[in-house]
Amino acid sequence: MVAYKSKMVERIRLPSRAQRERNLERAGYNAFNLDSEEVFVDLLTDSGTGAMSDSQWAALIRGDEAYAGSRSFEELESAVRDVMGFSHVVPTHQGRGAENVLYGTLLSAGDVVINNTHFDTTRAHIANQDADPVDCPVDGAHDPEMDAPFKGNFSLEGARAVVDDVGAENVPMIISTITNNSTAGQPVSVENTRRVREFADEIDATFVIDACRFAENAYFVTEREDEFADATVAEVAREQLGYADALVMSGKKDGLVNAGGFVATDDETLFERCKQRTILYEGFPTYGGMAGRDVAAMAVGLREAVEEAYVADRVDQIQALAEMLEEVGVPVYTPPGGHAVYLDAGAMFPHLSPNEFPGQVLVCELYREGGVRGVELGSFAFPETDRPELVRLAVPRRTYHKEHFEHVVETAATVLEKRETVSGLEITSEPEVPELRHFTAELEPI
Ligand code: F0G
Hints:
The protein has 446 residues and is an alpha/beta fold. The protein is built from 16 helices and 14 strands. It is 41% helix and 13% strand. A seven-stranded mixed β-sheet has the order 2-8-7-6-5-3-4, with helices on both faces. Strands 9-12-11 form a three-stranded antiparallel β-sheet. Helix 7 (190-203) links the parallel strand 5 (173-177) and strand 6 (206-210).
């Protein structure tokens, strides 16, 4: 059920078709090169793109900008304690700042880190410590059609095989990413989290939860895990996060803010070590690279994220978009995730081979037909992997309404109708670092 009305609005415009064609060409058929004013419905990411509540704007004005010992930091500490159950928090400028602080503190060259699936920046920060990130998703995680409640789970069998291979002494850290962004935003069950905790104890590793979308994950648990059928989202969140030794958090997701992140832990020694690294890379540990006002808004956002009305409205919006797309015959990853609908471009354009980038073709056609911006997560973003050709339509929090989604569905239906006439793309220029090519590479129609 809808949980908001608008108090402030931002004008959007749909450029003419001729203009959209010109924009695409100028952008080198890469939607990252489009200006936001050229985009009508922007589903590039759910990160830092949401609308803050009136309570958050009020907190922003009251933010305390003291360099040390800010009152806004105390508000954050108290929110992290109440909502997530951890007593120590180190703020950072955003999630990847938290990754640098925690992973830089815990890892050394040659270590192996196991995750249900590493998000891009997580993988990059682990590699930056000369450590080796290994994914252990459950079977079916990359199958767009398999129906299962927790396709985001961490595979214990996979992790055991890695540990048998490299030796427990080389695996100092295990991560569970909830929800699992790199497998279509799928949730992780509390039962799976408990088993990861046991496994971490068994091999004497630190258990970290990447909690970016912890509230959305908790909502799925209340809907799908029998043990929690009568629990609140807030209760599940505390229970699930409580199994971890430390959290990395991007406030730009379930912190409901446009900037910010943090590390949280109960471990005094780890906290002290993280603080030292924060001073070096982020700022004094009571602001960590954030303005005091943003810290204050994040403290309020964390509390709002576990309100039932908010999170039900949020996740239901994504489920409804997926259903509307399925009704008009657009192939989507099922079941839909918590922050995004993932379109199956491989199924949509069976006549295009992976090296013609069907996902990127779909991104371009969605823009050409309706000014809608999504992001490719197939052969263009992840060369040389056997991932499905997915396009993510990530929904900013508390931002778009039914009419926007109706436009997205109409646009996708138009692309579907003309799918046989669509041709592939080839890369014309790309950066030196292949892992980051989809951000800046340029393409042209074949
Ligand atoms: N971990 C996960 C699971 C993420 O999804 C992200 C960001 C980060 C860490 C890094 O956080 O952006 O605040 O530095 N995901 C965004 C996305 C960028 O579009 O999915 P950050």
